[in-house]
Design goal:
Elements: E1 3-5, E2 13-15, H1 19-26, E3 33-36, H2 43-51, E4 57-62, H3 65-74, E5 82-86, H4 92-98, E6 104-110, H5 115-119, H6 145-151, H7 154-165, H8 170-183, H9 189-199, H10 211-222, H11 224-238, E7 239-249, H12 252-265, E8 286-288, H13 298-303, E9 311-317
Helix pairs in contact: 1-2, 7-8, 7-10, 8-9, 11-12
Length: 321
């Protein structure tokens, strides 16, 4: 997601990650149809609309109503060329069909959370400010991070921290959390961060010990990996021949899902090894544009430190055989 600095909504200074690289990947053209499945504050969307003028159209989705409202303010000049919808990208297929984007020239996913979300203490994403332990990208969703922290077993919490945060001390951390909640419920980001910092030692780098645990809970609360696995096949189904799929990930598990999906859809037979005859009937549907992910330049990392872990993968839809 982009880096943003400032106060709430439209006053944020918006810097999309890998902006020029995304434009080069999608190759917006006049009259084209595009989907930004993770709209955020609309930085990439604006670039696509500008470069697809005069007749290009864009459908933007975001589960966060505040993000959609901010993007509307930024993109108001594009009028009916821009259609913005509050929706999770896991529903991109049905939302696209409903709004007349059943066949498009490009789909973009920019995964993760924006600095606007991280910077608002009441959203509960950040361990750097005190706020309710929330972490929902979609405020209408019922389950919060506090629900998970206060209800799950030691084994379930340890699994979340290990799988989604790659936290080596996942089990001691889970035990410390369950012990603490016996005294009183864990309701705030500060409470949780203090527990993590007591259990997880600070490494040699500048990364806060709470980083991995908070990341893991956010992924679990929003079911981000499951949503990505659902969304990618839908995006492929929406692409016209020659259309581009571009995905920016910020986590190794996300990147692995994207890499595996693109590689699978770029292959022919996907039968298990050893079968004498192909039985799957699978045909390649994608051509890989990036064999290795595109990463930010050193200049971008300096101006936008949150871009450091970004990886962009791109593939192109083939003409059906």
């Amino acid at each position: 997601m982009p880096s943003d600095n400032g106060s709430r909504n439209s006053s944020y200074e918006h810097t999309p990650v890998l902006f020029e690289e995304v434009m080069a990947a999608l190759q917006p053209r006049p009259g084209g149809r595009y989907i930004d499945a993770t709209l955020g504050l609309g930085g990439h969307a604006r670039g696509i609309l500008e470069r697809s003028a005069p007749g290009g159209r864009l459908l933007g989705l975001d589960a966060d109503p505040d993000a959609v409202e901010s993007a509307k303010q930024r993109l108001v000049d594009f009028g009916e060329r821009c259609v913005l919808v509050v929706a999770n990208f896991a529903e991109v297929g049905s939302v696209a069909v409903e709004h007349g984007f059943a066949a498009v020239d490009g789909v973009l996913f920019d995964l993760g959370v924006s600095s606007m979300q991280l910077g608002r203490a009441e959203r509960g994403f950040s361990f750097q400010s005190e706020g309710p332990l929330d972490m929902r990208l979609d405020p209408s969703q019922t389950t919060t991070a506090a629900d998970l922290v206060n209800r799950l077993t030691v084994e379930e919490l340890a699994d979340i921290f290990y799988r989604y945060g790659e936290e080596r001390r996942s089990r001691p951390l889970a035990r410390a959390i369950t012990a603490a909640r016996e005294q009183s419920p864990i309701r705030t980001t500060g409470q949780l961060a203090a527990i993590v910092r007591r259990v997880v030692p600070r490494g040699r780098g500048r990364i806060d010990p709470a980083t991995r645990a908070f990341q893991a809970l956010r992924i679990a609360v929003n079911r981000e990996l499951e949503s990505l696995e659902r969304a990618l096949p839908q995006a492929l189904d929406l692409l016209r021949p020659g259309g581009r799929l571009a995905v920016i990930s910020f986590h190794s598990l996300e990147d692995r899902i994207v890499k595996t999906f693109m590689a699978r859809e770029a292959r022919g037979c996907i039968c298990p090894p050893g079968l004498p005859v192909c039985r799957c009937g699978h045909r390649p549907r994608l051509r890989l544009i990036t064999r290795k992910p595109i990463t930010p330049t050193r200049e971008e990392e300096k101006t936008n430190p949150r871009s450091r872990s970004a990886k962009l993968r791109v593939a192109e839809a083939l003409t059906p055989a």
